[in-house]
Design brief:
Radius of gyration: 33 Å
Strand content: 25-35%
Structural class: alpha/beta
Shape: elongated
Distance between the termini: 42 Å
Number of helices: 12
Largest sheet: 6 strands, mixed
Amino acid sequence: MNGGGAAGTPVPAGGNDSFGERLRLAVAPPTGRGLALLLAALAPLGLGVRFPGLVWPGVTLTVLAYLLLCLDGARAPGRARLAASREHPPTFPVGRASEVTVELVAHGSTLGTGTPARVRDEHPVDVPASLEVQSAILRDAVPTTLHYTLTPPARGVRRFGDLVVRVPGPWRLSTRQTSLALGEDAVVVDPDLSSVRAFEALARRGQLAELGVRAMRRRGEGTEFERIREAVADDPLRSINWRATARTGRLMATELIPERAQTVVVCIDCGRLMGVGAGALTKLDHALSAALLLAHVALRTGDRVGMVAFAAGVTAAVPPRAGRVQLGALLEAARPLHPAGVEADFDNLGEYLERTQRRRALIAIFTDIVDPDQGQSLVAQCRRLQRRHLPLVITVRDPAVDEAARARPRRVSDAYSRAVAASMLSDRAAVLRTLRASRIHTIDADARALSPRLVNRYLEVKRRARL
């Protein structure tokens, strides 16, 4: 947890409130009871139109009522008698709710058995909160804890503001509003790693099927030797080790596993099309989440993983390495990635990979396909990579486009939208057919199915020794 700081070190009542706070106090809104008092004091002034003798008594009553409201607001806890702190995780996952905790402490005998207050935490303006304004009961020196969640729609650094507290006076005639500065409080919004944590937890319990992922490895499949063991009934004939059988007098089998220390290069398209929304997040955010899960699984199985981010040119690169610390390096490289205002250049990517990646690798390209000409460039570069590597093209489907292509038009604009969506899907399908006809692996799925399908495809490649 990351403490946002504390504000308002408690001092005795009547402390050093600033001029700005006293000015806000003068215009602090009255409560319902205070408004009724003001209206009652103004009543003689209204009658003074007909009965002139009531004018001065009405003025006197109005001034007295206003002074009572100011006195009541002045006795409410202000900055000098309020302390607050904010706690939250140091990083928030994009598109996921993260909890923020605010603790507020008030001091003063005027609080009695409990004073109601309204609290608003100035969270980052572009991040939706589950609660904007919360109610609290303040008691002398008793901490009050409030909770709410934030769901960031985009990655980057976000900053919090002040904590605004509105407390009524002891007579409940007017309120006092105070802003408590909690210091420099920023949070980093990272790619969503919840699928990585879920994978790790389910893998430990042997329940990966709940995530839609098949077994990590199957005994007897692969090319790397693991051990010689006594054969069982369902072992294939090709796994029988006849030399060990002759030596021991028992039927023995050789157990193979998928080869380790292979290379996986994750290529992230940061072009204009990846900034399009696919549900609550952009296609780039969905791609990064799936790419980091693939990297985690590959590192977990002993492979080397690298990353290349590209748009008009290569914008970031992490050389392939093994070990779990490599996931942290990939996450650091993914943090600043945002969609560019230009189209992705697949020719540039192909040249870069041919120049830097000499060892055979699984090249996982996360991209989008809309324009047929750009799709042909992707096909050409995948064929070029296919001479040495195993390319895998991963595209994120936009559910809104699928729905628009299926929707029944009710207006002329609906018919136009349906025609455009159908044309986009047709061009996409044509490029995917060309890729598959060239024996290039592809995955085209929406965000919900993308991660498990990608992991299953990677494990299938490993089991069949395609690398």
